[in-house]
Amino acid sequence: MKTESSSNNYVGAVLRGIGDDPDRIVIHQADGRTVRAAELIDLIHRTAHVLRDRGVRRGSTVSIMSGNRVEVLTIRYATNLLGARSVSLYEGMSAETLAVIAADVETDILVTDKVDALPKVKDVLTFGPSTAGADLLALVEQAPSTPIPVEPVRADEIWSVRHTGGTTGHPKGILRAFGTYAARWSDAANPAEPPVFLACTTLAHVAGTETDRALGQGGSVVLHPRFDPVKALADIERHRVTDSALMPPLLYQLTDQMLREPVDTSSLRNVAYGGCASSPDRIAQAVAVFGAVFTQVYGQLEAGFISALSPEDHLRYELLGTAGRALPGVEIRILAEDGSEVKQGESGEICVRTPSASAGYLNNPELSAQVWRDGLVHTGDVGFLDEEAYLHINGRVRDMVIVLGGHVYPTEVEDVLLSHPAVAAAAVFGVRDADSMEQVEAALVLRPGATIDLDAVRSLVTTHMGAQYAPSGITVLDAIPLTDVGKPDKQLLRASWRAGISGGQPVAG
């Protein structure tokens, strides 16, 4: 019988990190309001009382859909404190997708500020008065603040179901165990100076887990409703932010804004980036602007963190196209289609054994068996290890574009496009023509005031990579559309192409 323990429940570490100094500011909000330690702990326990009174127990599921707000944190902490599991949903999720996910996870309570087209669930709580459900804010205000002990749980019990971003298909629910998540604090040493984390992307993704880490380490959080490079830089300077986490496209925007209107960012210690391919040239530019404060992190919800490129590594330009080296406790193997291990320097599927791997896909044993097998997580990414054990990623197996003459990995083409001095951002994707043959398409964003010869861009790709890699069509946009988690939305780009918005031909943004 597996042992139940409160040490398996990460909420205890968060509460200890918030600490017993009642007046310490733990959350700075974008509008200037602050939340102090005693107030945050009080809100967590009041919310837990509300949820418990509405039947939330171990085995219950509370789904949360809202933008970045303090209550999103307190609801999740209260849910997990009770031993129940939380589901963080993306604010921009369609009603159809929301309904499917809410049913899949067997939602007991949905907490939301979206009151139209709600899915059928047992109970709904809203942020403020609404005919759709009970007012959570009013209930919390009336609830007692008596501390509720952290619920002991087994290490293999699920604290969260997180869904993939959906860039390669319908979102899949990924099971995350209490014990694995709690180990993040027991295995990591606290920094000498507590972190000040800027959370400026959705709390339903990496910003949420990094907020947990910052609070658990006795630090504080600067909470923004969404990413805005001007406001992000202003608050880095104002609050002496030490840490943040961004997708590469957002990091590029931050760098561009810093070049336009520089501020004091000397407090930065670690800005993590990852989640999609990055451009070595753009990352080198960011290092030149902010200093060697970046850590590229490669990982997946399925596998957890796999490898990292350290701040020191960022001083070597030739490493900026890599995903760094394996993290402690991680084994990386590069396998051929038949499951055999390839030679060093040869490409194959990246398969890993990690201490932070998730427990599988929700209600999908067949797909789970495909991804988690032989003690390894099969990432679906293609890459190789070089002679220094740095991992190079060519792209995803299912993001590969099959053209006449061979296989095209979009990330490789994006790197070449981003080397053009006029190009600020690029997204490469595959589409099928009238004959069902795949072709390479590209969407570009230009630097302010820049012009570009699209034929010359194709020639650039052809010169560096070969004719089969050159985009058949290039669309110039004002901005690359992003998913809710900040990745280039290639599904939307494909849909736009199919709808004839670009028609596979160059258009001006």
Automatic annotation (TrEMBL):
InterPro entries per UniProt? AMP-bd_C, AMP-bd_C_sf, AMP-binding_CS, AMP-dep_synth/lig_dom, ANL_N_sf, ATP-dep_AMP-bd_enzyme
List the SUPFAM superfamilies. Answer: Acetyl-CoA synthetase-like
Q: Which residues form the AMP-dependent synthetase/ligase domain?
A: 21-362
Q: Which residues form the AMP-binding enzyme C-terminal domain?
A: 412-487
The protein's name in its UniProt record: AMP-binding protein
Species lineage: Bacteria, Bacillati, Actinomycetota, Actinomycetes, Pseudonocardiales
